[in-house]
Design brief:
This protein is of the alpha/beta class. It has one domain (2-161): 3-Layer(aba) Sandwich (Rossmann fold). Helices cover 42% and strands 22% of the residues. The protein has a 5-stranded parallel beta sheet, with helices on both faces. The longest helix has 17 residues, at 94-110. The protein is globular and about 45 Å long. The chain starts with a strand and ends with a helix. The mean pLDDT is 94. Bound molecules: adenosine-5'-diphosphate. Adenosine-5'-diphosphate is lined by residues 10-12, 16, 18-19, 22, 89-92, 96, 121, 125, 128-130.
């Protein structure tokens, strides 16, 4: 069992500065953070899992301690397959809490060795979510403050297509 790895799972559709903040702060505590891109909600996502992984690979290319992988199926199975035991999640408002609490309890019940650790959002990103970025981008707003330039480019490309 590897105590030095944290798995940071999510949809990351797309990856925002808020996500990067949690990943970077995770690296202050763990040697390696694996950003695990969920493939489950493919149908509702703007970017395919492959596109999300591809963007993340580019965004993290300069930091070998930040890894990116796609996962399918049950998160705890994936965590165990990486010989890890920590799931890292971010918390913004109280509204995140109920769902996250349920998920963490469920994961711990399914697999007792897996623990979920929560990191509070940095106040400057408290309002930031992938959905709000997509909404602002779709309506033609400037999203430069919310996402890395590469993500902005890809988002603009998507919205030009639709
Ligand atoms: P999911 O679909 O699994 O909720 P998300 O991509 O929306 O995936 O989020 C992944 C994780 O990042 C979640 O734990 C979420 O709470 C956290 N997160 C998202 N945005 C922020 C933010 N602005 N600040 C802190 N944590 C965040």
């Amino acid at each position: 069992m590897n105590r030095h790895i944290a798995i940071y799972p999510g949809s990351f559709d797309p990856f925002t500065h808020g996500h990067m903040d949690i990943a970077q702060r995770g690296l202050e505590i763990f040697d390696t953070v694996i950003i695990a891109v969920s493939n489950n909600s493919e149908k509702n996502s703007l970017f395919s899992a492959a596109e999300r992984v591809d963007m993340l690979m580019k965004l993290t290319a300069d930091n070998p301690r930040l890894q990116v992988e796609k996962f399918d199926g049950l998160l705890v199975n994936y965590v165990v397959s990486k010989k890890a035991r920590v799931i890292l999640r971010g918390l913004r408002a109280v509204t995140d809490f109920e769902f996250e609490f349920q998920l963490a309890q469920m994961n711990h019940t399914v697999c007792e060795q897996v623990e979920t650790l929560f990191m509070m959002t940095s106040p400057k990103f408290a309002y930031l979510s992938s959905s709000i970025v997509k909404e602002v981008g779709r309506l033609g707003g400037d999203i430069s403050k919310f996402v890395p330039p590469l993500v902005k480019e890809e988002l603009m490309r998507k919205f030009d297509q639709s």
